[in-house]
Amino acid sequence: MANTLFFKLYLSITAVIIGSIVIVSISMDYYYDNLDDVTFVHDASFAAKLLDDFVEDTDRWNMEVDLLSRFTGFTIKNISMKNALLYHQAHELLDVVDIEPNKNYPPLPAGIGKWGVFVYEHDEEDDRLAVILPHNDGLLLIIDSAEILYPIDGPDDLVDDNVELFLLGFIFLSIALVLYSSVRNISNHVYRLSSASLALANGQLDTRVNDRIPAPLNQMAASFNEMAASLQHSQHQQRVMANAIAHELRTPLTRIQLVMGLLSDEAHNQYTTELHNDLSRYTVEMEALANDILMLQTIEHNPSSIHQKFDLSALMKTREVEFQHQYPHVSISSNCEKVMLDANPRYLQLIVDNLVKNACLYADTKIKLSLQSDELRYRIIVEDDGDGISPQQREQVLDAFTRLDNSRSRQTGGFGLGLAIVNTIVKTMHGEIRIETSELGGAMFVIEFKHEG
Questions:
Q1: Are 21 and 176 in contact (CB under 8 A)?
Q2: What pLDDT was estimated at residue 59?
Q3: For residue 215, how many C-alpha atoms fall within 13 Å in the half-sphere facing its CB?
Q4: Which of 362, 313, 305, 303 is nearest to 337 (CA)?
Q5: Residue 373 pLDDT > 70, yes or no?
Q6: Residues in a beta bridge with 142
Q7: What pLDDT was estimated at residue 99?
Q8: Mind listing the pLDDT tens digit for each residue in 277-313?
């Protein structure tokens, strides 16, 4: 789930929402902090302006400063230039506010708009601000009031803040749940399409998906159903055609063989005898072709489920002897471990026969059969010392009617169906086929199956 496209999409959207909230919160905090600085400078400048008409350190001055302190909460002090420098060195400078004259405030003291007002952090613990303003011939240090534990309206404001946080969290959670539900729904539809595609690839051509789903996935589902129906119809037509051809060939082949049998009783010259032999060979080849086509179609579309216990090593030894008689020009050897199976012996014999026959046709002098087994798998290996098969042709050679060397195939016979039959049986039995290079110099076919049970 963590590596899926839709989970990443969900995380991305959620991250964008969280990031947006965080960025907006930080920006608003920064804005309000700056706004507090500017407001404090405006208020301090206004307070300083109100003291312009009073002489410093007089009773009227002290009384006015006391009234302003009570009204604004500010602490207002006269300081010298030296003390202002010491204060500047001892406190953190937070901001420099350049305030233009505002019509809502009296004109600022001389120099504030020109050089800017330095805003200091007077006390780190209670976040009090302070500014130094020019006043008449001296300087004023104006310190903001300490932060009050409860606002004027009391603890209700804190409750309001909690309500705002709760509402923000509820909104975020609602968005996340809606996004998750939508993404999950899309993900489930795509997974169903993926499962149906795998079933179709495994030969289940009657697989269909529900196309009553939201767009644009419904178009994909409808296209999948049309493709599956087309493939099913095409395969049905091919199967009917192949079976019909194979079956229909048998009738003229039987008649030709009957006529050939009658002609064999008659006297022939050398020319007609050669023609007679050629016709006999052709009919045998055509009958073998028909049998192979029927066999391929039967295995592919109506696989047998018959299983029985037997000794695979004994079966391979028997086939070794049989093929050694048929092909005396090659030397066939074997190294077979004893392997008892509960499987389809007919299918395994077809695998061995077609692989050994193929090796006999293309080997120079040697063929080696091997049967290996471990706790999980058993392997049938057939090697020869022929020309071998190039890596580029190893997948192609397993297709039906594929002959890599047409000239040699005409001499050795065969229609390119033997390895296709082997490949079909291996897929039916959920095995694996590999083509490699043998130590003998030719091709090496490795058929591997898992032990059942």
A1: no
A2: 84
A3: 0
A4: 313
A5: yes
A6: 76, 131
A7: 59
A8: 777 777 776 777 677 777 777 777 677 777 889 999 9
292 near 415, Cβ under 8 Å?
yes
User: Residue 101 — φ and ψ, nearest 5°?
Assistant: -55, 135
CA angle (391 as vertex; 388, 392 as ends), nearest 5: 115
C-alpha span between 194 and 126 (Å, rounded): 62
DSSP characters for 127-158?
TEEEEEEEETTEEEEEEPPPPPSS-TTTTHHH
Q: Supply the pLDDT for residue 120.
A: 87
Q: Measured over all CA atoms, what is the biggest interatomic distance in the chain, rounded to whole angstroms?
A: 157
Residue 113 has a pLDDT of 43
Residue 399's identity, in one-letter code, is: D
Coil, helix or strand at residue 370: strand
pLDDT tens digits, 111-147: 444 456 788 888 877 778 888 887 777 788 888 876 5
Burial class (CB in 10 A: 0-12, 13-18, 19+), 72: middle
Token output for 133? 């303003």
Cα–Cα distance for residue pair 12/180, rounded to 1 Å: 12
Q: Is residue 337 within 8 Å of residue 313, measured between CB atoms? A: yes
Task: Please write the tens of the pLDDT for every residue from 31-70.
Answer: 555 556 777 788 888 888 888 778 777 888 888 888 888 8
pTM of full prediction above 0.70? no
* 161 C-beta neighbours (distance < 10 Å), count: 10
Q: Do strands 377-384 and 92-97 pair parallel, antiparallel, or not at all (unpaired)?
A: unpaired
d(Cα 203, Cα 222) in Å, to the nearest integer? 19
Placement of tokens 């050398």 in the chain: 270
SS3 annotation, 19-66: HHHHHHHHHHHHHHHHHHHHHHHHHHHHHHHHCCCCCCCCHHHHHHHH
**CA gap 256, 278 in Å, rounded:** 12
pLDDT category at 149 given cuts 50, 70, 90 is very low
